[in-house]
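Exercise 7b. Backbone tokens:
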């Protein structure tokens, strides 16, 4: 029973079923309300006309009764109001039309006041139909008289059921037609979505592929374009992941292979080896492996968008502190303005600056320059050296993973080739940029991240 109840719940219906049901219900309520209002207006119009004519007839009869106090047969002036009766103050019929000859008084509520016409719908057994009755109680010189004028509702009663049935049938037919139209329209509207769903289901772990974009310029077309854009980004991510896995396997294989070969060679003739030298060489390879793994973990966290707590940081003070933290083989000139506030993770900015300084130290000849300043809405960091510089065609390639120029490999054989990659990812994680710009002979790296207003 619980499973059946869940299946009957609207939340388990398809979009087409929910939209069709909602539209049908709304239209059904509108049509039902319209039918009731229309029937009420028709009924009020019919009864309003009868009331006006009945009031005229009863007024004429009242004038006649006041003047002559008739007894016996009354002449009918209005063919529709053919039922006339005059009752005395005891309720006895003293005058009547031919249609009510020998009949008792019509059963109607007694008038509530004098000289005021009141209308009622009462049964008339002798004609097997209801009648629309207008009554009035008057005072005459002959005593109180009660006047009845009535019109048979035979035709109205006979057609009432057909009229109500016609209106109900029209409402039901209209509701069913709307349900059919809405269901068809929703089915056609969702046809591209079903096609996209099938195309997405056919996509495997290989190439992401694309979905068909409808020719119509509507929300479904926008959805298809968004899906294709997402698939394009996913394809790029997969390609970068494949390249990353290939690069990682290659970079890890080299130190592992060297370490294994060195240890195996030493174990073949252990008595002839200088074990402290072997241990130092193995430790050097282990340090390189540790550096690669550490950098890979940092890249993985940055690439996955792992949330890092950020705080308001004095950009200039952080630059001065990190640039002067350790001694280097060349002097480092620091020019960092005060009062530059940024919202950042201090440890990540420190890692970025350290990577840039390490890179500059490897390539510079005599000096490194570090500047931090405010430029419009950005905080700007520049790290320059007086080395041989970076060729323009290599200024983007140096930010690729495991990409090291010939000079870098010559100057530092133990590097991982990930320092600049990590630095750019940190800059992007902070909504900024890191580029290798033109310099006065040497390399010049420029970092821009959004600054905060005081």
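Sequence design result:
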């Amino acid at each position: 029973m619980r499973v059946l109840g869940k299946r009957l719940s609207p939340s388990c219906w398809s979009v087409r079923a929910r939209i069709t049901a909602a539209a049908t219900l709304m239209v059904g309520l509108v049509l039902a309300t319209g039918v009731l209002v229309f029937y009420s207006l028709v009924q009020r119009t019919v009864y309003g006309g009868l009331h006006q004519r009945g009031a005229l007839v009863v007024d004429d009869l009242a004038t006649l009764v006041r003047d002559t106090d008739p007894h016996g047969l009354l002449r009918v002036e209005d063919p529709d109001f053919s039922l006339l009766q005059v009752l005395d103050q005891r309720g006895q019929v003293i005058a009547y039309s031919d249609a009510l000859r020998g009949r008792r008084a019509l059963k109607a509520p007694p008038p509530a006041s004098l000289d005021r016409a009141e209308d009622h719908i009462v049964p008339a057994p002798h004609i097997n139909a209801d009648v629309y009755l207008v009554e009035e109680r008057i005072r005459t010189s002959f005593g109180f008289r009660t006047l009845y004028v009535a019109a048979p509702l035979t035709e109205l009663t006979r057609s009432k059921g057909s009229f109500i049935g016609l209106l109900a049938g029209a409402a039901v037919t209209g509701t069913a037609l709307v349900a059919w139209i809405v269901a068809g329209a929703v089915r056609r509207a969702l046809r591209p979505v079903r096609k996209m769903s099938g195309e997405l289901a056919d996509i495997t772990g290989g190439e992401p592929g694309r979905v068909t974009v409808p020719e119509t310029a509507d929300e479904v077309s926008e959805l298809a374009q968004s899906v294709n854009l997402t698939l394009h980004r996913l394809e790029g991510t997969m390609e970068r992941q494949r390249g990353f896995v290939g690069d990682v396997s290659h970079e890890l294989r080299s130190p592992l292979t060297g370490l294994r070969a060195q240890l195996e060679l030493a174990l073949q003739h252990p008595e002839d080896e200088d074990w402290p030298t072997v241990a130092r060489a193995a430790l050097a390879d282990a340090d390189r492996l540790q550096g690669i793994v550490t950098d890979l973990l940092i890249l993985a966290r940055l690439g996955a968008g792992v949330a890092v707590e950020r705080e308001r940081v004095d950009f200039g003070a952080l630059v001065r502190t990190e640039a002067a933290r350790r001694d280097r083989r060349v002097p480092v000139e620091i020019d960092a303005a005060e009062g530059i506030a940024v919202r950042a993770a201090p440890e990540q900015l420190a890692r970025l600056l350290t990577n840039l300084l390490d890179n500059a130290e490897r390539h510079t000849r005599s000096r490194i320059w570090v500047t931090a300043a405010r430029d419009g809405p950005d905080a700007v960091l520049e790290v320059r050296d007086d080395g041989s510089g970076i060729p323009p065609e290599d200024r983007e390639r140096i930010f690729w993973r495991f990409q090291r120029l010939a000079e870098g490999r010559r100057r530092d054989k133990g590097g991982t080739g990930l320092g600049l990659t990590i630095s750019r990812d940190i800059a992007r994680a902070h909504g900024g940029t890191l580029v290798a710009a033109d310099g006065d002979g040497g390399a010049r790296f420029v970092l821009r991240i959004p600054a905060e207003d005081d």
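Instructor comment: The first strand starts at residue 72 and ends at 73. The chain has a mean pLDDT of 80.
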